[in-house]
Amino acid sequence: MRPVLEATGLWKRFGDLEAVRGVSFHIDSGETYGLLGPNGAGKTTSISMVSGLLRRDAGTVLVDGEPMTTTSLAPKADVGLVPQDLAVYPDLTGRENLRFFGRLYGMRRPDLEDRIESVLEVIGLTERADDRAREFSGGMKRRLNIGIGLLHQPKLLILDEPTVGVDPQSRNAILESVEQLSGEGMAVLYTTHYMEEAERLCDRVGIIDQGEIKAEGTRRELVQMVGQLDRIRIGTSGHNDDSVSHMRRMVGVSDVSVGDGAIEVLVADAGRILAEALAVLTGGGVTVSSVAIEEPDLEAVFLHLTGKALRD
Q1: Is the pLDDT of residue 179 over 60?
Q2: What is the CATH number of the domain that holds 291?
Q3: Are 75 and 64 in contact (CB under 8 A)?
Q4: Of 165, 208, 230, nearest to 12 (Cα)?
Q5: 237 in the same domain as 186
Q6: Residue 312, pLDDT above cutoff 60
Q7: Are residues 194 and 287 part of one domain?
Q8: Could you report the per-residue pLDDT of 104-116, keeping only the tens digit for each?
Q9: What mean pLDDT comes out for the span 26-42?
Q10: 19-29: per-residue pLDDT in tens?
Q11: Which of 12, 75, 128, 199 could in theory staple to 63 by disulfide, Cβ–Cβ 3.0 to 4.6 A?
């Protein structure tokens, strides 16, 4: 099956500034792909080219196999774009906003009315649907913004920093909605500078900085790419030298250290090693009181690849 989105070699210059330099990625049906990077990294410029809003200087974009340009019609109909800036009318109710944009999409009753009810449920605004948007909190307006992008059931949903400036409750509701949409088969392009959002939502992540994709893959692939290791901390009532020596010889174990009341094991994949490590300890008569696994996060990967923290 072909990808829903294929972006290849995207370039964009603004005067002397090369905002995007050779960005390439693809997204499959049912996949959430994250563009992770600081403000000014080139995320918004990249998705503006992908969605056909901004003319690119070089590169190609295919949406469901159709070329995307600033004048394209068919591929744009397959895209739902949720921009950073709110695109809702404050004097209209939530339902009226959805109805207005649905008519712009060419949708007609009764299908439009049925779709509005479905979208209101997805974004969690059913009970406030008939309140004016000016009465909504910032997070509720963001959720309405997402609903507008979902109305025409696009094959690709593009979310540009959708949780910026929202309260924790609305932020969690937005993340849950994205998880649900991906689970239903929609391709999602998600830009963020929040590490925890990328780790929670994204099947694959492209780390972008200074207009370039520095690395791409699943969280596990990115971690392994830069040589980061999992740390298993096993609380014990003592230790057996033979057991510790055995653990040091296990495939995938980089180091074993013994401290007060605990044994720490550095491994490439904690999930694969843990059961064997515990079996070695208990087989040697060591009593295990606790187990904790610390996995390296994308922050460590970003720091390794760019030499700076994400929000620097």
Answers
A1: yes
A2: 3.30.70.100
A3: yes
A4: 208
A5: no
A6: no
A7: no
A8: 989 998 899 999 9
A9: 92
A10: 999 999 999 99
A11: 75
Q: Are residues 277 and 165 in the same domain?
A: no
Q: How far apart are alpha carbons 162 and 285 in whole angstroms?
A: 52
Of the candidates 164, 162, 129, the one whose C-alpha atom is nearest the C-alpha of residue 145 is 162
Q: Which amino acid is at 160?
A: D
pTM exceeding 0.85: no
What are the residues whose beta carbons fall under 8 Å from the beta carbon of 166, sequence distance 6 or more?
A: 137, 138, 139, 142, 174
Residue 19 lies in a domain: yes
* pLDDT tens per residue across span 290-309: 999 887 778 778 877 777 76
